[in-house]
């Protein structure tokens, strides 16, 4: 198997990959400056940093997508010059991107064979299927080789990506924010897999934002900030707080402990809501909830349990099959998106470039996207271009959106700045109700902190907020109450003081509330926890 | 050991500057002229003489200039028609059919509805009828697309044939002039239906329709909510719905406006030039309009310049046949070459190419 496999202490294993003084510029922007980094076989080396810190650029150099302007890259002690990703693959480097590179209409086994040299006409799918089973059992990468990709969950698709890299002989694996798309239980499974691969001698570079999981999975942690290495540490030397300080370069504000009590008026009432998905499934099924003004109501749930369709129905983007939606006492069931927005409902959609923004158009247009009908941005059918420019400039300045100008196209902005633009725009009118779907997904710590602060301050001024998130820590730190969404229904609503990660995870897995309450009461929490 | 070699690197340009794409457009035209020049050389002609003759034929005297403006009029109007639809990513290939329907509607008004009206009544009535005829022909694919998601590229294209055959049916059948000895075509319009023209030249009021339409369209696109919505829907229909825009309604409206502009082109052809409805009133203006709109990057003001340039090529190459006995296909050849180089040039507007000499350490050869 792999040279120098499976030592208990990976620090004596041979170095798999070594970067020395690597610098990469894009025009005037220095993405990486004199970065030195190495990873050994049998080691999980985490690479962390905020958006724009240079992690992706660095890994693109490793994967052969970019060539460094200066500096050296060595694999197994030998200097290499990658001309294309193919060269990197030949040297045993495999990368799992956040967007999977799988053909949806093919099976798992067939996907393994794409791009492999073939002998004869027929595909050797049997051999591939056997390889899938072998790798599945070795590393806990549970997946059916004969399933079609479109049938698989996101977590399963990610496992297929990893299996494909192993099947092609990759020895150095780069995982780009692998847990960003996973449920807590899936993330825990992935961490086990990663440890098992390291134990067999693979070298794993693990890119992440999430400090807790990095502390759990990594042998060493390298922190990048503004294109430079801040340092490399072992998990035992640091904690969450000191890591965050290394990443951000300053002390993070502690979340406020006391929160004002929610108001007494009902801002949003949803009764027996039923909605169907694009595929015609009843994904929201008899959903009821009530949110008061000045309250953050968190919705926890595994992705695909109706979160998206619920948010779309409440904001008028999807038609309601049956049930009622009332905002501040007004029945808005079946109203248009424009009418619902005019009634003071803001919407932060889960997929910013697919729904929230028009990426090919400028920042000004996007900043005014949900307000352009109103004075002073337009008078009758005529746009007031000056007022629109001023409005956009104000949002950019107030929310520190980093953009060359309001004329820049939104697609040029980083993900975090795109998200800040959406949030700035949605909160601009001081809405009575805010539907926020994964507002901090893929956003760095600094921006996450800013977004959380904004949501809290709007709650404190009296807005009602529905926060849909898969990040349990985020839900618990922001929400007043948390409802658990399973198969299109809120199966239980618990005050945040009683919402432990364990309890939420069990409820999300579909275990009935009564059983959960009983078992939590009876057994020590550790023995039934989903994560380990 | 080190060897050196060349390395080509591509860098994506996110926002190409107007200067850059103007340079690429002009460069494409020059390259097309050079390429066609080589073809001309091979067939034994001096390209400079030929191009000179084309310029003379299109711009040499007042008559030639007027003929160029006559050609430019329908190209300008149909170019605008195509551009407004393309801006919303609606691929209206049907400007040709919409032009025919506009001509039919305007002719119907002139011949049968208001044959005795004065110019002050008749011309506006024909203009409105032409716009409505084209608008309806554009709205049909619009409704099909909005309600049933039918691909508008196919439906607009197919409706071209329907429109052209319908026109032929009318001029061979019910609308044929009984005094024309069996030749297809309607009776001549009343004199009041003729668009005013400049002195004794053929250039007529239709050109003003086109220029006014271009300016109006520019204002609408830049300054109104309607134009704003067109841009957002064109870029991301999902975001448009999220912003509360009524996208299906907009599809129908925009295709109807597109059709209306092409319909006005048809009206201006029959009222300004033909003075009756004939079998074929357009040599494919609705298709050339696609090239015009694309060359102008869907910018209404740029369409004025591009439609003029296109007419210079078309009129100039027509004149070649009489001036030096060359086949008229030089025009389409030049048109095709320009489009070809422009599409290739599209790449250069979106990417910056770096070619650099790099020293590479040679891989050690074992063995």
Pick out the low-confidence regions of chain A: 1-7, 523-532
Number of strands of chain A: 22
Q: Helical content of chain A, roughly?
A: 25-40%
CATH class of chain B: Mainly Alpha
Return the structural class of chain B: mainly alpha
User: What is the N-to-C order of secondary-structure elements of chain B (H for helix, E for strand)?
Assistant: EHHHHHHHHHHHHHE
| Count of structural domains of chain B | 1
Q: Quaternary state, please?
A: heterodimer
Work out the strand percent of chain A: 15-25%
CATH fold field value of one domain in chain A: Rossmann fold
What's the rounded overall pLDDT mean of chain B? 89
At the fold tier of CATH, the topology name of chain B is: ABC transporter involved in vitamin B12 uptake, BtuC
Largest interface: A-B, 34 and 24 residues
Describe the structure concisely for a colleague:
Chain A has 532 residues and is an alpha/beta fold.
Q: In words, what does this structure look like?
A:
- The complex is a heterodimer of chains A (532) and B (367).
- By secondary structure, chain A is of the alpha/beta class.
- Chain A is 33% helix and 24% strand.
- Chain A contains 19 helices and 22 strands.
- Chain A has a six-stranded mixed β-sheet, with helices on both faces. In chain A, strands 16-19-20-13-21-22 form a six-stranded mixed β-sheet, with helices on both faces.
- In chain A, β21 and β22 form a beta hairpin.
- The longest helix of chain A is centred in the C-terminal third of the chain and has 17 residues, at 445-461.
- The relative contact order of chain A is 0.10.
- Chain B is mainly alpha-helical and 367 residues long.
- Chain B has helices at residues 18-42, 47-59, 62-87, 95-113, 119-148, 152-172, 206-223, 225-235, 237-242, 247-274, 285-295, 300-324, 330-350; strands spanning 2-12, 351-361.
- The longest helix of chain B has 30 residues, at 119-148.
- Chain B is globular.
- The model of chain B is unreliable at 360-367 (pLDDT under 50).
- Classes of the chains: A alpha/beta (532), B mainly alpha (367).
- The interface between A and B is medium-sized, with 34 and 24 residues.
